Amino acid sequence: SVEGLSSGEGLSSGDGLIPIGGHRRLGSEAFTIVVHPDAEVLGRLLPRYDSRLRSIINATTADNMRLDPLFQQDSLLTWGEGPITLLGDAAHPVMPHTGQGAALALEDAGALNLVLSRTTDVEQALRTYERVRSARTQRFINAGPRIARMTTTRNPLIKAIRTAAVKYLPESVLNSATSGPTKDPHVELRG
């Protein structure tokens, strides 16, 4: 059988499903990590999906469709070495559920500007950038699976709690759940 699908579904690697290793499942429902090139097998999987997604898939021709798996990547221990570093998703890939990938990459660019414009020691500046940015981006990396579970759940109790929270909690409380303190994340880099 194929990882991520129950044996009762009668699917196997012979159906054209290609399991991709090196991942972690995120919850019991979501993020089956398979790539599927065959429209017939996709048709057998379709009933598992939300009706809105099914209607979009049914209206899309096979040659215009791509199935991309979602992965949760552990934080990198180091982002660079010598005069080289990473930024954006290469350094700290966040799940799309956070809605923060592009913003974090822009923050990285600003942080690099701050550290590199204040010194001639490029390597030391890059290690400072990495230390400061790693601390900030870790919150978003950690929040991704939690947000994914809350936004993609099929559990009626969790759905009710989520809906009530969005409806009744002040926006500031909801924002603080993922954004953390609203202070300047680059104070240390400005000195």
Uncertain segments are 1-37
- C-alpha termini separation: 57 Å
Share of helix among residues?
40-55%
Strand arrangement, major sheet? 1-2
- The class by helix and strand makeup works out as mainly alpha
| Assembly state (oligomeric) | single chain
Q: Measured on Cα atoms, how large is the radius of gyration?
A: 21 Å
- Average pLDDT confidence is 75
Described by the principal axes of the CA atoms, the overall outline is flat
- What amount of the residues lies in strands? under 5%
Biggest beta-sheet profile? 2 strands, antiparallel
Number of helical segments with 4 or more residues: 7
Encode the helix/strand succession as letters.
EEHHHHHHH
Let me know the number of strands.
2
Task: Tell me what you see in this structure.
The protein is mainly alpha-helical. It is 46% helix and 2% strand. The chain contains seven helices and two strands, in the order ββααααααα. The chain has helices at 39-45, 51-58, 101-116, 122-152, 156-168, 171-179, 187-190, and strands spanning 18-19, 34-35. The chain has a two-stranded antiparallel sheet with strand order 1-2. The longest helix has 31 residues, at 122-152. The termini are far apart. The model is unreliable at 1-37 (pLDDT under 50).
